[in-house]
Predict the 3D structure of the following.
Amino acid sequence: MRQSTRCRKQRRSKKPVLFLGIIVLLIILLGAGCGFIGATIGNLPSVRDTDRPVASSQVFDIKGRLIRTIHAEENRLPVDLEQVPVHLQQAFLAAEDIRFYDHMGIDPRSILRAVWANIGQQGIAQGGSTITQQLARNAFLTQNRTLERKFQEAILALQIEREYTKPQILEMYMNQIYFGQGAYGVQTASRIYFGKDVSELSLAQCALLAGLPQSPNYYSPFNNLEAAKSRQATVLNQMAKYEFITAEEAEEAKEADLGLRSQETLTSGGEAGYFVSYIEQLISEKYDAEVLYKEGLKIYTTLDLDMQRAAEEALAANLPDYYTDENGLLQPQGAIVAINPHNGYILAMVGGRGTDHFNRAVQAVRQPGSAFKPFVYLTGIEKGMSPGTLVDDSPLTIGGWSPQNYSRSFSGKVTLRYALMHSINVPVVRVAQQVGMHNVLANAENMGISTLVFSGAMNDDNLASALGGLTQGVTPLDMAAAYGVMANGGVRVAPSAIIRVVDRNGNVLEENSPRETQVISEKTAYVITNMLESAVLHGTGGNAYIGRPMAGKTGTTDDTKDAWFVGYTPDVSAAVWIGDDFDSNLQGLTGGTIPAAIWRDFMSRAVADMPATSFTVPPGVDGIAAEGFQLPSKPEDKEKKDKEDADSKDKKSGDKRSPADEVKETVEKVVGKVKGAPADEE
């Protein structure tokens, strides 16, 4: 009893200490919070001063050489709100801040709605930031996404609301925001995209412009018309939802001609233009869109200017000129991407002839043809096959589909190596049938092909995909990265273009390191590499040979709308594609012709200063390099050999042949073998 009483007294004696500790902790937290708030408010700029100084951003190559200065001069033509069409004002309200005229600068309801939409993964047209907050951020603050900046943004929004009227705020916002293509403000954007004064814009054009600030580079109709139209439709739907327009008007606007300026008036702008545009897109997606033009960034990239120049010149020197399309662009177009397979660095990128903004190296999704076959064969190797495994090249029908070889003939039993060397179609379909196309697709995706379709009525889990007949296609960037896995011993390193980003004050905003994943075995990577070496030395890829260890594969679609050569040395993986933007055929060109020549011309210069090393041979692959070259003997071959042996015996006692006769006979035999061999196939 005494002990129980004593315990209760001890517990009562601890309660005041606990309460005191809680009070002290609250005081400390309150003091810290007040200090944070005081320091944050103390650093706020005056909302009366809207002239924040800007600085140019610079893009450097991997050797520290300046590639491009992204000009700090903002292309802006201020305009009074009275000159802005009502539809454009309404479009911004519907897309960005429908409660603009009701809140006091910040809108808790919109913030909660945005959070809920993100949780539900539904998405809505406007986010949590009000128009006033966006103005505060763009006009007065840096682009760093920190708690301090978000708090400053909210405080400034409240101050702006006290200092200016709603129409004044909307006017400043519409003159401040960035629309892509170097355009700041609605007036400049209207002139750049449509070649007209903002007051002359149609409803369709208003909706397009209002959708751009969310992601100016991505939604630019000059970069991605499909995405721009999709975003425009979202804005129009929001306008109809909030009864600014009728549903009928929204549908009419979706179908209306946008009246875009011709892309003839646009150029990618100098050396490495496509790559710089790619960097701009990456930076804009990671930070706010205006950061490139206002924050004086130093962007250190993976590009090697020497390789870039070699790529641009190789493409320009080899592309044929078939015709000029309706946009003033020469066709066919082409693309090159080169990657260091060991760290994923993009060393060179050319997205076309340099006369437009569509970057075919990363945006063109095209059919790979036979360039997809290595993914089938490496899957077979993983399942226990080898270069000498025999596969039947004979007529095959699967569900009414009968794959054909390029030569429209068959060779009987052939080895895997021979089938890949000469790009024969039927054997690769049989291999895919045996190992399972789903396993092939899984390997391709793990190696870096990001555009495969695995579900739905139209998907890639079918044997036609073994020949490169995919639902969507592939990009040159993905192909260079995926082949790089084979060059890197089965290790995938995600492609990267940016090494480091530094702000105007020298603060490192980001620093990227390679991300490695072993996706196929080292043995599999070597065996398929050895087979692809044969495809260059003895098969369809001979035109790409550069006089040093290399591996690669040609690719041509049945309708010759796309032609590829993708190949690699131990240190560089590169993909070359040519094709017509409007899907016209290439007049019979195959991957072994112009694409292979472009690859050869580029790589000869790209690796000229690198040692000519061989591919690393892992343990357990003894004899692989010599396996699969010899085709199985046919009965008629045995009869011929027996007859030759008999003739030889008869001649032993007869007249001796002269050295000239021996040479002549040898040449005739070699020529006969060449004439009797199946032609290179695609």
User: Anything to note?
Assistant: The chain has 24 helices and 18 strands.
